[in-house]
Amino acid sequence: MDAKFKGRWILVVEDQPLVALHLADTLMKAGASVLSAPTLQEGLRLAEHPQLSAAILDFVLGQQDCVPLCVRLTERRIPFVIHTGYAEVPAACHVGLIVPKPATPGTLLGALAQVLA
């Protein structure tokens, strides 16, 4: 368990089930509570969680990108990490820390700790 994540609510928005499961497991082992969404719509719904601390977002979710989610999290002042295989992401998502895919869970935890600091 990591003190940085204890008591934190982290949103994971990822459309690849195995990646999402692995990330959620890693975060829970670090002490975080995890909300998980496979779609943009579900991610937007969960982004309204009153205790949300931060998020890890896959940039492309099926046929959509996560720009609306970046905008909403920024409005709520909730820090986020973009986990993406794309070289360029729109300016609306530059508020978040961009971590190229593939990344180890440890790398993502480090990035998350950085945006939470």
Characterise this structure.
This protein has helices spanning 17-29, 40-46, 67-75, 105-116, and strands spanning 9-13, 33-37, 52-58, 60-61, 64-65, 80-84, 97-100. It is an alpha/beta fold. The protein has one domain: 3-Layer(aba) Sandwich (Rossmann fold). The strands form two sheets. The protein has a five-stranded parallel beta sheet with strand order 2-1-3-6-7. Strands 4-5 form a two-stranded antiparallel sheet. The protein is globular. The two termini are 17 Å apart.
Strand and helix map with partners:
Layout: E1 9-13, H1 17-29, E2 33-37, H2 40-46, E3 52-58, E4 60-61, E5 64-65, H3 67-75, E6 80-84, E7 97-100, H4 105-116
Offer a quick outline of the entry.
This protein is an alpha/beta fold and 117 residues long. It has four helices and seven strands; from the N terminus they run E-H-E-H-E-E-E-H-E-E-H.
List keywords for this structure.
alpha/beta, 117 residues, single chain, Rossmann fold, 35% helix, 5-stranded parallel beta sheet, globular
Please count the helical segments.
4
Structural class estimated from helices and strands:
alpha/beta
Radius of gyration computed on alpha carbons: 12 Å
Q: Any idea of the CATH class?
A: Alpha Beta
Number of spatially distinct domains: 1
Order of helices and strands: EHEHEEEHEEH
Give the rounded overall mean pLDDT.
93
Task: Note the beta-strand portion.
Answer: 25-35%
Coarse morphology: globular
The CATH superfamily is identified as Response regulator
Q: What is the total tally of β strands?
A: 7
What share of the residues lie within helices?
A: 25-40%
Largest sheet features = 5 strands, parallel
Strand arrangement across the biggest beta sheet: 2-1-3-6-7
CATH structural architecture: 3-Layer(aba) Sandwich
CATH third-tier fold name:
Rossmann fold
CA distance, first residue to last residue: 17 Å
Unreliable segments of 5+ consecutive residues: none
